[in-house]
Structure prediction request, 489 residues.
Amino acid sequence: MINKKILFLSKKIVNYFYKITFQKFYIKLMSDKISFKSIKFCDQVFGVSKQLNQKVLFNNFEYQSFDCMSLYEGLKKQLEFRNCTTQYLEFKYLNLGELIKVSYKINANKNYTQSLKKLKNQCKKYKFENLFYPIIDTIQKNHFQIWGNNFSENFYIKNKFFVELKKLQTEFDKLAKKFDVIILPDTAYIYNHLLKQTFLKNKKRVLCIGPAHVFYEYKNIYTSEVSVENKLSNIKGYNQNKKNIEKFLKKRFFGVINNGFKNISFREKKLKKFQNRNVLFLHSFTDANNNAWKNNQSFTSHFDWTDFTFKELSKNNFKNWYIKIHPETMAIKGKKISSNNQAYGTKLILEYLIQKYKVPKELIDDCPTSLNILRNQMPIYTNSSTVIMESLCFNYMSYFSGNRFDKYFGFKAHNKNTWIKFLNYKTKKKKKINDNLLKQAKYMLWYQYSKETFLKNICPDRHVAGSDTIYNKMIIAFEYFTKVFYNKK
Prediction:
């Protein structure tokens, strides 16, 4: 058997040569064309002037994939042409594997709740209250560095973590005073969220631009690029794009779209009979739990929400329930994936919870397809899943508790007692879906998932995901190249 250290070193060497050869050449080739194609986009976002004279900071330091780097390099060149000063951000990562630990001591944090309580006290002590949720997301994302192959609920953070975070905050504050705009791919985790908070505090623009056709301008620290807000502009957006939106939704619900885990939720083929039950839609435990958040929200993470919900449902042995696992878990079924992959962490955590609450296997295996669930208007329960918008397209509302969605979009539980009541409803609540609500749901589904927004000329139709193999990445690279160079639009 090959020594693990040799295998690790070999992968590192191969990755290094990949970056300095293929990836470097690819980005150079793509960025010039993307720069030209981004003229209209930059006009809309930054203004039509050829003399913008703005200082723009790009941060894709955590996202060194060729699609994100090509997009950012293209935008960087276009902004420099408009007399902007640009720079890529680099900083030293926190050593999470050393700063966040699992303790097996008798007096250690015994479970997730106790671990969170201590973390909250630490955040208060070091004046990082507004980073409590991003820290949780960062812990979940970096599951393997902390728990390895054996997930357990307890963890503790060394005080040195917060000392190092203070240093980063000081560094970011200097950058916020120097630059007018910062561009980020997302803000779910600790580094980008700290940048977002620091730049907004200094009254600077914070833009989310990503290869997944993501564009969002942050106005506060609570909402994000995935937030679904109750806004008149959504209705206007639907009216302006009605034909394209309806066409997209038809394709989405018939499972013929090749993005978003390859539309796997609507590609399932199950012919067996099913009962009309409540359905619990689960999440990826390791991916952006708190993209949108509020202080003292009901649940701190998808793990917290699932643990609480399973505990409540187990009191009646999950009677009259199905459990729908996240598409990420479906996508890796039967595949061998790297242990530091986020999908691997989700798999381990799900297995842990199933064992902890003795969840009957058939509740997952016999769960109907998403399309059958929606067509039969089966009651849906989730923390913050996209199915909340999808159920509205089938003329009924879901039950949820997370802060991604405005309460307008379903039956929202603002505390744990209300969530328990929702779970135990015998007669389900019904509310008429008005035309404007339906338009907003359809528009946001299209805007967030269609790849047809105003970034379509400069973004790939499929972006690189953490679970993609080298072969898949090569396919995406070829498709992106073909689109940028041969699509005349």
Q: What stands out?
A: Residues 4-90+179-225+459-486 form one domain. Residues 299 and 308 are 9 Å apart (CA to CA).
